[in-house]
Amino acid sequence: MTPAELSSALRDALTAAVAAGELSLDPADVPADVRVERPKNRDHGDWATSVALQLAKRAGRPPREVADVVRARLLEVPGVRAVDVAGPGFLNVTLEAAAAGELARTVVEAGERFGAAATPTGERVNLEFVSANPTGPIHLGGTRWAAVGDSLARILTAAGAEVTREYYFNDHGAQIDRFARSLLARAHGEPAPEDGYGGDYVGEIADAVLARVPDLLQRPRDEQQEVFRREGVDLMFTEIKQSLAEFGVQFDVYFHEDSLHASGAVQRAVDKLRELGRIYDADGAVWLRTSDFGDDKDRVVIKSDGNPAYISGDLAYYLDKRERGFDRAVIMLGADHHGYIGRMMAMCAAFGDEPGRNLEILIGQMVNLVKDGAPVRMSKRAGTVVTMEDLVEAVGVDAARYSLVRSSADTAIDVDLDLLVKRSNDNPVFYVQYAHARTSNVAVNAAAAGVRREDAFDPALLVEETESLLLAALAEFPAVVARAGELREPHRVARYLEELAGRYHKFYDACRITPRAEEEVQDVHRTRLWLNDATRQVLANGLGLLGVSAPERM
To answer: What is the pTM of this model?
Structure first.
């Protein structure tokens, strides 16, 4: 019996009790999804639910009385061995061994689908992440967002949403001008502008532009700068996309900021907000009434000189996403953008949308690299920052992605390069991948010993404590995926995999799947092979959600 099946049984018990007059509840009050959780104390059973406490007030009865009604009906469900009412009204459920063990076959037969939502939610999500300016290689902050954002996209898809990965390509504004001037200066052997960009990559891009346009330095200086701007941005962005692809991250849409201004999208956004009464004119400028929606002040949209203010692009871009049919726009920003949230949410409300639902903003904190106990502060190529390429070169894609996604994105982290190259259980990515490789090796050895899944499956034989604990961990995977998507926290999947790996290693140490030399193959060996292979499947599914490989040997 899976947690979903137990949840359904609890709902059926509540519905039947209401229909029989045992509980005075409106049928609509019965929750569509009764939440079940693993009790912290294994002696309290396999699963626990607080549904009686949730419904007691509406039922007009003490929680324990509601729990007693549900208990009586739940005891009639096949596969349920015991139901206890504990504390103020918790229900602790213990399953028959066969019912609990049946999960192993459920997982194996579901394969890659196990952990994913049974039906699509129909929700369309636009997930914008990385969006690094094309003025240099992706730094560590952007690398973290690449790992977290891509993992979140995979998790939301598994949870039933239709997800579009989007990269906002900033090719409009002062930073691009500074980049062009930096390329121009480097090509002429001049010092970088005071507000320009340094690092060896600037010279590499400048040389590449000159290779594309050999006569460029013979042209007028202003024309040179424009060519460096156009070609340099194109080369830099091509390099960024290549780095992301090598990191396992692909985007569905690359949206050019410049197109918002060229297409008239900014003016359309202003016109729509004016129709809604959110725009006013003052001091020769066009203003948005963001203070009406929680911002600390109103914001200038079009400056008095006729040029658009920075927020004008945000207005046009958000409206464009909504007009493309997205129910949610989720944007990932760095820690330096924290003060930006208020005006963005006010903008969302000004369009008549719901902040936090139609627009979500996730803030990520800094990443520090540590080697030999000391911070790694400088990249040879980028000059002042450590880049995605530096991290991948040091530890590889799998370790880089896993290390960046295994902690909550809103906390700063130190990534220990020495730890991530160790082939030991102290290295979390090795620990999880090794568990998967071990399940694969066990399956190979079992086949050589004549242990075949198809010959038998008797879940009632899975009675050892390590087997029960492993089954319990496997059962939690769908809920972990759903919760990680709901809270936008991919690290929950990584931490779950580490716990699952630990449960598997203990099972491996305690329970033989291949018989000893003098033993015959028995049904318990075959049934344990089902459990081994179920674990392999869940480890692979979980690693896949993080964009990390599941090796069969290490």
So the answer is: 0.89
